[in-house]
């Protein structure tokens, strides 16, 4: 996956432009990480801000949409191509202003881009 692709939904993710993903449950390869607080795009870098609840001490994480492998709008579930530990180890998201900081977003994109590829399975 190229770095610019990390900011775009994969064609086979079932994402439909204009869908409201707010409050969708976000699931990593090894379990739930939280729910979508909001989706944003700044500097052509589209991402989800995910509220992790108590899993990561009540903090939110920023996830580029390029790691989304599936959107099931009926069950309100979003699946990611990474593990909970990989999401937790991503550059820390502290304030909303970071979603508009191109340097911060580039660091997040670079982190997720360097993760090892995962096998995808179809049900």
Brief write-up:
This protein is of the alpha+beta class.
Structure description:
The structure is a single chain. This protein is 14% helix and 30% strand. The chain is an alpha+beta fold. A six-stranded mixed β-sheet has the order 4-3-2-1-6-5.
Outline the secondary-structure elements.
Layout: E1 25-28, E2 31-42, E3 45-51, E4 60-64, E5 68-72, E6 77-80, H1 84-88, H2 102-113
Parallel strand pairs: 1-6
Antiparallel strand pairs: 1-2, 2-3, 3-4, 5-6
Keywords:
single chain; 123 residues; alpha+beta; six-stranded mixed sheet; 6 strands; 14% helix
Query: How many DSSP helices?
Result: 2
Q: Main sheet?
A: 6 strands, mixed
Poorly predicted tracts of residues: none
User: What is the averaged pLDDT score?
Assistant: 89
SSE succession: EEEEEEHH
Percentage beta strand: 25-35%
Structural class: alpha+beta
* DSSP summary, beta strand count: 6
User: Mind telling me the C-alpha Rg?
Assistant: 13 Å
Helix content: 10-25%
**Strands in their spatial order, largest beta sheet:** 4-3-2-1-6-5
Distance between the termini: 23 Å
- Overall shape: it is globular
């Amino acid at each position: 996956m190229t770095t610019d692709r990390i900011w775009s939904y994969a064609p086979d993710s079932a994402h439909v432009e204009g869908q409201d993903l707010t409050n969708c449950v976000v699931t990593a390869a090894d379990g739930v990480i939280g729910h979508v607080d909001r989706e944003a795009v700044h500097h052509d870098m589209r991402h989800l801000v995910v509220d992790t609840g108590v899993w990561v001490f009540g903090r939110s994480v920023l996830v580029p949409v390029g790691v989304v492998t599936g959107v099931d709008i009926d069950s309100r579930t979003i699946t990611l191509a990474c593990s909970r530990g990989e999401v937790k180890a991503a550059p820390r998201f502290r304030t909303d202003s970071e979603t508009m900081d191109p340097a911060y977003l580039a660091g997040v994109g670079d982190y997720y881009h360097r993760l090892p590829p995962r096998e995808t399975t179809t049900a």
